[in-house]
Amino acid sequence: MTTTNWISEYIAAHKAALESLPVEETERVAHLLAEAHTQGKQIFAIGNGGSAANASHFITDLGKGASDSLGKRFRCLSLTDNVGWITAIGNDYAYEDIFVRQLENDGREGDVLIAASVSGNSPNVVKAFEWAATNGLRTVALVSAKGGKLAEIAEVVLRIDSTHYGRVEDCHMTIYHMLCYMFIEKALVPGEMRNAQTEVSS
After folding, report:
1. pLDDT tens for residues 17-48?
2. Which of 31, 56, 66, 114 could be bridged to 183 by S-S, CB 3.0 to 4.6 A?
3. Which of the listed CATH numbers 1.20.1330.10, 3.90.228.20, 3.40.50.10490, 2.30.42.10 matches domain 3-201?
C-alpha cells in the first residue's frame, strides 16, 4: 500500500467515525451545560493522555470563548491541569484517586462532570464517576464503540462507532468544539433556552 492510499483510507475511516457522532445526545449535553451556566453550577472535565489534553482544550474554549460570547462566565475547570495536586495525590494515595480527590474538595450537587475515554474503563475516571453519581453530580461520558464501565454509569453517553484511538479522540474533540461553538455562535443561549424549548414543543 502506498502512503497516498493509506492517507485516503484513513480519511475515509475518519469520515465514517464522524458520521456516527450522536446528534441528540450532543444536544442534550449542550442543554446540561446551559443549565449549569444559568444556575451557577461548576463544570469539571477529566481524561487521560490525549483525552486529558482534550479536556483542557474544552475548558479553555468554554471558559474563554463561550463565556466571552455570552457575557456571563461559565464556572468550569479541567481537573487534568493541576500538576502539583495530581502528583501529590498519585504519590501519596493512588493514581486512580487523582480526579475523585479533587472532586471531594470542589464537587457539589448539580455540578456537571464530563469525561472522554476511548476504553471507557480508565480506573481514575470510573472512580470519579462513581463518586459523582452518588453525590448528585450530572455525568457525561464520551466513549468509543467499546463503551466500557463509563457507559454503564454515566447519565448521558456519547458513543463513537470506532475503536481507533486517534479517530475517536478526534471525534471527541469535535464534540467538545461543537458544545463550545454552540454558545460562541449563539445557537444556544442559556437565558433563552426555556423559551426555545417551549417553542419547539408547541
Report:
1. 999 999 999 999 999 999 999 999 999 999 99
2. 66
3. 3.40.50.10490
